[in-house]
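Running log. JK asked me to keep both predictions on one page so they can be read side by side. First protein, sequence followed by its tokens:
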Amino acid sequence: MYLWIATSPGSTVLLTMTLPCISSSRDPANFNAHATSRIACLHRRRTYFGLVPKRTRLFLLLALVPLLGVALFYAWGRQQLQHDIQYNEFIQEAAKRQRISEDLIRAVIWRESDFDPEATGLAGERGLMQVTPQAGREWALSQNIRTFRDTDLLDPRTNILAGSWYLSRAIKRWQQADRPEIFALAEYNAGRSNARRWAKDMTVLNSAVFIENIDFRTTKTYVLDILDRSEYYRAHPVASAWAKGWNKLSGMWWRWLERRKIRQFHEQRDT
């Protein structure tokens, strides 16, 4: 049994009880009677629905669309959150081995690949931390791993261990600086030679002056983005689905813009 609520044009509320338009009888002799009853039932349903003004039906439909969108966005945010959390074990292992912050490693992964283990860069970088094959081979040599192959960088654990080792090595080179991780991040992104060039005329390795000396806009943005994201992870150890969803959308947008600029740069250089 169903309860139908409809509003007539004269603002009269109509409450009607109707039976389901289904017959449980299977007697062939009563087939025509049951068919006629079913048609009449369906006609009454259509009539009751027709009593609802067209504007009201349209308003209800328009109200449901954004609610459905919000629900889908929340579900997508939870899915992305669970996807990123699966790498926490590898991040913790790498941070313990290299004695660097988990938040810093996580921020580098966010900036390099947005937690996509199959991401590839324009210069051959691979995996979560966008490790180059050369850097991967150097890591494997330091760990006495003779079976290493470049394709191993697509494995999340291998990539995080190799990338964090490379970052930790860069941090050790700049131990005399006030904030060695800033110098190391610039080296991680633009190479050691560029990082040394930006610090060449500095008698004291001051991170604020070093950032001002960076003449690659993409590298300067890279360093500042990772520092901000690292602070965000430190302040929000448990992220919400809403925040994760917004972060994913914004990250996808500006990463597309950045890759587009890099691609245009390479095209102009090659022509």
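And the second, directly underneath as requested:
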Amino acid sequence: MNTPAFHLAAKTAVITGGASGIGLAIARRFAAHGAAIEILDLQPTGLETAVRELCNGGYRANGESCDVADPASVDAAFARLLARHERVHILVNNAGIAHVGNALNTTPEDFARIQRVNVNGVAHCTQAALRHMTTQGGGVILNLASTVSQMAITDRFAYATSKGRGARHDLLDRQGFPRAWHPLQCHHARPHPHPFRGWLYRQELSGPRGRDVRETLQGPTHRPHGHAR
């Protein structure tokens, strides 16, 4: 009998931008391993379709319309989902938008729009989750980064800078992630164009001192470091 790589029974996972793409793929995988899924997304049609798909598959799923760039919208979404669940065990900061433009032709408005979603959105959702995780005994936060933050790709000026700042540990650890005594884990995944390789930046915060570990993910047989607390 095959042993599951991980189990998430009795866990609640909040996934931003989970109505399509990587976010929906994460929602499907987490649901298949037992988690109750809460999708936050700005697209109502896609949100409804994603939730219906998961529920029709026999999984537990709900969705909330949410603009991660708006802290009031984030707080309201978390209030509604917490009315359905006792705890939030996992937050996946996946929501993000892209822009085609280089350093010369990207307008200030476009640059600011990307930062509001890809950087501020991570902060807003992280803060909303931490208000509960720091009092409920722990949790896991997964931030989706991108290889474009460390490699040259034409016409991705605003997007590359947002992924370099918004999803690495700098935004959380070096600017106020509460380290002391909370059994919290913060993971940073950077998808790679190669289907069997990517990077995971992991920071485990479980006391007054934390540690950084960088590991290579090797294919679909990779087993995560542990279960959500």
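Observation for JK regarding the second prediction: Helices lie at 21-32, 44-56, 71-82, 108-136, 157-166, 169-173.
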